[in-house]
Design goal:
This protein has 3 helices and 5 strands; from the N terminus they run ββββαβαα. It is of the alpha+beta class.
């Protein structure tokens, strides 16, 4: 995985895994401002040719590290990130239920965003 660079494209709401100048995977997310700030991952996608290389897990880990650096929570709605967080409780604090509810409400109110 050392040839993979992970970069945050905050304006596009994408945490991207890049190999040889090509985006090979990403987590689509938004920043929730209501009820305290949070990063809300919605989808994780890895290109088929790059599956099984740990890219999705690296993206999830970096999302939680990014949130920790910013002093905000993660409210995962992406099924992959939810499962990753369950397997890595030391790295992925459990989201407050009210924060998750607010994230779901935001997503329902903005269906064209994802």
């Amino acid at each position: 995985m050392s040839d993979i660079e992970i970069r945050d494209d905050r304006p596009a709401g994408r945490l991207e895994a890049v190999a040889a100048g090509e985006v090979v995977g990403h987590i689509a997310y938004f920043v929730l401002a209501a009820r305290g700030r949070a990063l809300v991952p919605v989808h994780t996608i890895v290109e088929p040719a790059h599956e099984g290389k740990g890219i999705a897990g690296s993206l999830a880990r970096e999302l939680y590290l990014m949130a920790a650096r910013e002093g905000i929570a993660v409210a995962p709605l992406c099924p992959y990130v939810v499962k990753w967080a369950e397997r890595h409780p030391a790295e992925a604090p459990v989201a407050d239920p009210d924060l998750l509810r607010a994230a779901k409400e935001w997503l329902a109110a903005n269906p064209d965003r994802f």
